[in-house]
Amino acid sequence: MNSKLIDYHIHPGYSVDAEGCIRDFVLRAIEMRLSSICFTTHVDLNHARKVWDLFMKMNGEYVRFDYDIMSYYIDDVKNNTEEFKDRIDIKCGVEISYGHHFEDLISDLLDSFDFDFVLGAVHCLDNVSITASKEAFGYFSGTSSRELCEKYYKSLYSLVDSGLFKTVAHIDCYKKYGLAYYGPGILEAHHGLLSPVLKLMGEKGVGFEINTSAIRKGHKEFYPSNQIIKEAFRFGVNLHSIGSDAHKPEQVGFMIEKAFDLASDIGFKIRRIDQ
Ligand SMILES: [Zn+2]
Ligand SMILES: [Zn+2]
Questions:
Q1: Is 133 within 8 Å of 177 (Cβ atoms)?
Q2: Is 168 left (phi over 0), alpha (psi -120 to 50) or beta?
Q3: Which ligand lies nearest the alpha carbon of 123?
């Protein structure tokens, strides 16, 4: 077991866009010689969306999200934690989609469950998902890259300011499809918008993750890009985790070692935290 490698962003088949049972992800993580993993199934409580985000999958069936299925997911992870405890450390968490208008629902969820780790993510702007190909391109067609970034970083600022989260997921995820639509200008469109968010993160002790999945989408750099990781370091923002954003067992551990090397080259030590 390589003691330093972790993957703290894994979507098992409970997430509507993921496939595979908890056990298969665990076996893959052991094969990849990871020391610790965290499952982070998606939770989206934004009832203004009325689309499949509000669902989870249980045994391959779509079920509307409720606290019963969340308990079932947690129990499933815990059973595997126990079974594999001599081979790998397994944690149970969630990736929560953030929106200012349903902070109360997020707060209730976090009060109701004792997650090991929680990622807060901005996936939607104006209740449209900018990280789902079916929705993103339609949204981009009426929005300039600067407007997109203005709205994204405004929402991210609000996420950090809410006090609900200790860790921000994939900071510049709008580039996922934004690069194909807007071109390389999107990689610079955060200038002047990101710094206030990083400053607030540093002040509030909110950290970030390096998410390697950008490479699977054809990008040259991770989420966030190298320049943003360096800027985060300058602002004293902590790096809390590295994750593959795996949606299938074979994606677990994807480029994790490279991300560790990059982080340590920049000067980061990963400060793993609970929640
Ligand atoms: Zn996400
Ligand atoms: Zn994710």
A1: yes
A2: beta
A3: 1
Tell me how far the alpha carbon of residue 43 lies from the centroid of ligand 1, in angstroms: 10
CB atoms within 10 A of CB 101: 10
CA of 211 to the centre of ligand 2 (A): 9
168 Cα to the center of ligand 1, angstroms = 10
| Predicted pLDDT of residue 273 | 57
Q: Residues in the chain, how many? A: 275
- Helix 175-182, helix 133-140: angle, nearest 10: 50
Distance between CA atoms of residues 261 and 240, nearest Å = 15
Q: State the number of CA atoms in the 13 A half-sphere of 30 facing the CB.
A: 16
Q: Tell me, what amino acid is at 157? A: Y
Ligand in nearest proximity to the CA of 168: 1
Cα torsion through 157, 144, 191, 167, rounded to 10: 30
Q: Residue 2 pLDDT more than 70?
A: no
Those residues whose C-beta lies under 8 Å from the C-beta of residue 101, and which sit 6 or more positions away, are 46, 48
Structural domains in the chain, CATH included, are: 6-266 (3.20.20.140)
- Give the count of beta carbons closer than 10 Å to the beta carbon of residue 79: 13
- pLDDT tens for residues 64-82? 889 999 999 999 999 999 9
- List phi, psi (to 5°) of 31: -60, -35
* Sequence letter at residue 275: Q
Q: How far apart, in whole angstroms, are the C-alpha atoms of residue 246 and residue 9?
A: 7
Q: What is the pTM of this model?
A: 0.95
